[in-house]
Structure formats: structure tokens, C-alpha cells
Amino acid sequence: MKTILSIAASDPSAGAGIQQDLKTISSMGHYALTAITALTAQNTHGVTLLRPVSVRTFRAQIKALLSDIQVDAVKIGVIPTLSIAQEVRRAVSTLSVPVVLDPVLASTSGFSFVDHACVEYIKERLLPLCTLVTPNIPEAAFLLEMSRFPKRGGHMLVRQYGTSFLVKGGHSRRPEAEDALFTTDGDVRRFSSPRIVTHNLHGTGCTLSSAIATQLALGKPLAESVALAKQVTEQGILRGRDLSIGSGNGPLWMFPL
């Protein structure tokens, strides 16, 4: 059994963030550790409040975990403040394990999670330490400081930040959802799948990134880890597509029905 550390915000509706990472990693038969960066108030309609934990609280969580338990991989989600970003980087720099960062900058409903100074620090100091970064198309364009994601944007991201990127195509209007993996050795691999008609897609990015981190913890190559994690995510969407949890954008379901 592998141990994966999720560094992310808490979601009381349990569709995303720490709670979804816990469910995803557990459903794959592995052990999830958690370090909470922020508390949120949210439901299936969106986020209404975010309160970062104190840097002292976050540091204490990391110290308690790393002083006792071996970590095999790290998944990073919402990092709300510069001081917490600095602590995340400090922790990651002491570990020689795969690190997957899902750059959650804002919610689907438009709630902003991160301040400007924190974003700049993440871009300059944390992204280069990661094994893989998993932005969606708008986030990828933002990381390039462009209004639209260009045709060769994946290669530009790799050159700029020195790490591999999985650019998620769920925001495109194509009949199939296509994700593109751009690696530091210059390879490009595309993963296409039919769109699943459902209103329950809350936490899809958290699911994918934590599943990739779990596969990397097992020693799988990057492209294979992405392919297997996409299967886990698609299965979660299929299992949860008819759930009635809330009246908005509902969650995936990670366990057998």
C-alpha cells in the first residue's frame, strides 16, 4: 500500500478538495494523508467563502506527518496564500517523490482562491519542482499570461516552467474531451474520450490529479499513470452521473454501486 499526501482545501460538500482526494486514493486501495490549506463554504452550486488556515497550523500539519509517516507521492490543490505556498515548497523540496500540482486558481462558479503574490510565487518557485502540472485550458492560458491558449501552448509551458504538463480539454466544445500530455523530453501524447452527459462533474480535476499521483507512487511511467488515472476518473463520472446529491453540479462516485 502506498501513501499519498494531499495538500488542498476542504470541501464540506465532499465533492472536491481534500474529501475527494481521500475518496479517490482510498478507492484505488491506497492510503491518503491530508494537510488542509483552507476551509471553504460550498455546495453543488458553488463556493461562498474561503478561509486560509494559519501558516502555523499548516506547518504543524506537515511537520506531524513527515516526522512519522513515509510519503510516496504528493498531490497539491488549492494554495490560498503566499505564506502557505512557501511552506508547501519547503516541504516538497525535502521529499524525493512524485509531485502532481492541480493549479486551482478559481472555482467553476468564478470564486477566486488565490491572491496575486501567491500565484507568482507558485509559478516561479513551486511549478519547477513538480513532476506534473494539470491545468485546464483557461488555467493553461493564464500560466502563459495569454487570453487564449495557443496551438503550441503545451510546449511553451514546458519550456517556461521546466516540468511536464497535462492540459485538460474538458472546457473545449469538441464532441470528445481531449487531454494532451506534454513532457520535458519533448513527447506529446493525447488522450481522447467521449463526453459523458451528466450534471455531476464536481471534483473531476481533483479526482484526476490525485489518481495520477497514486499511479506515480506505484512507480508507473508518467504517460501510463495519466492513462490509468483517466480510467479511474471516467469510471467515477459514469458511476455518479445519475446521483441526486444537491441540485447543482453534483459529485462523482468512486466506489462500486
Key descriptive features of the protein:
257 residues, 37% helix, 21% strand
Q: What is the radius of gyration?
A: 17 Å
Percentage of residues assigned to helices: 25-40%
Strand arrangement across the biggest beta sheet = 3-2-1-4-5-6-7-8-9
State the total count of DSSP E strands: 9
Shape: globular
Judged by helices, strands and strand pairing, the structural class is alpha/beta
**Order of helix and strand elements from N to C terminus:** EHEEHEHEHEHHEEEHH
Q: How would you characterize the largest beta sheet?
A: 9 strands, mixed
Distance from N terminus to C terminus (CA atoms, Å) equals: 24 Å
Folded structure, characterized:
- The chain is of the alpha/beta class and 257 residues long.
- The protein contains eight helices and nine strands.
- It has a nine-stranded mixed β-sheet, sandwiched between helices.
- Helix 3 packs parallel to helix 4.
SSE order and pairing:
Layout (H helix, E strand, L loop, with lengths): L2 E8 L6 H11 L3 E13 L2 E7 L2 H12 L6 E4 L5 H12 L5 E3 L14 H11 L5 E2 L3 H7 L9 H9 L2 E4 L8 E7 L5 E7 L9 H14 L4 H19 L17
Parallel strand pairs: 1-2, 1-4, 4-5, 5-6, 6-7
Antiparallel strand pairs: 2-3, 7-8, 8-9
Quick structural summary:
With 257 residues, the protein is an alpha/beta fold. 37% of the residues lie in helices and 21% in strands.
